[in-house]
Amino acid sequence: MHQLLDQEVLGNTLASYVFFLGYFIACIVVIFVFRKVVLHKLKAWAERTETTLDDFLIHSVERFLVPALYFGALYASVQTLNLHRTLSRILDTAGIIIITILAIRSTTAVIEYSFQEHWLKKSENETRHRSLRGLMPAINVLVWGLGIVFLLDNLGVRVSAVVAGLGIGGVAVALAAQAVLKDLFSYFAILLDRPFEVDDFIIIDEYMGSIEHVGIKTTRIRSLSGEQLIVSNADLTSSRLRNYKRMEKRRVVFQFGILYETPQETVEHIPGIVERIIRAVDQTAFDRAHFAKFGDSALIFEVVYYVLSSDYNLYMDIQQKINFALMKELRGHNVSFAYPTQTLYLTKSGD
User: Measured at the alpha carbon of residue 229, what is the angle toward residues 223 and 230, in degrees to the nearest 5?
Assistant: First the structure.
């Protein structure tokens, strides 16, 4: 039996092959127990927690780490044998390729999970989900491109010339498609920074309307008059725009004038009358009401209050309600609103 184990086959004794096989089987058993017992218990524990981070980590270990462990077991077991230089090089190359692919896939999985947790979880907007589906392919191309360059460099390929050639070609493409690339980068800026979303009401320069669609090159806006405005993404990110959808409350300032003939005692009571009217209206917060100035033909009062909503229709309904109540109250105090008038005084000259 001892003589049989000492016989050599392809540069290794039979005893070495037996040790290799036993070592490999032992590693496989350990990995199998780890996957079936340890990971199974960790999964059961993760299902009872509220966070999704532990579920993602356990799923990633099973998806990426376990295959790497299987290959590691094979690689470590083979190292106990005396391999031919070519076979050893093939095994090393296969290891680099497998580890690089698993690292790239795990990186893209982490990026996608981060977007889903910190971007999509905050909103159930379907547009944001579509935006992520459009953004992830570009991220995957970038990560895979960097991973392939890293792989080729580790395999001994001189990538500097290739990268230089791609750089020159990239500059030429960038110059030829400068406008398109500018809009594309602006699209990514809109997705990540989120200055507005679909259904938000914005004003940009003299144009205003609701966002209908955010595309790779242009954004479509439905104006108040009904037509669709097509604006490039670069114009949107480089302009100052107002997003009224995100306005938590609206500051309202309005003025009204009464006749100069109004008694002073009545004039002094008007700010209190305005305050009572506004405080009686829901969704409002009174700020101030003052006799502001002497106008050309009226005593001018200035009123400031807040509408606790961004809804424009609600603001107009509240302002209308305040106007009706103000007319009724002032009429009850025999106060008339002023209108532009001129008084002409005539004097008779002496003979």
Answer: 155
Domain-embedded: residue 180: no
Considering the domain architecture, whether residues 260 and 219 belong to the same structural domain is answered as no
pTM for the predicted model, two decimal places: 0.52
List, for residues 43-102, the tens digit of each pLDDT value: 888 778 877 777 888 888 888 888 888 888 888 888 777 777 787 788 888 888 888 888
In whole angstroms, give the CA distance from residue 250 to residue 260. 32
Q: Which of 114, 75, 125, 120 lies closest to 96, judged by CA? A: 75
Same domain, 309 and 240: no
With respect to residue 112, please indicate whether it lies within any of the assigned structural domains. yes
Strand 299-307 and strand 228-232: the pairing is unpaired
- Contact call for residues 306 and 251 (beta carbons, < 8 A): yes
Per-residue model confidence as pLDDT tens digits over 4-17:
555 666 666 777 77
The distance from CA 57 to its chain's CA centroid, rounded to whole angstroms, is 23
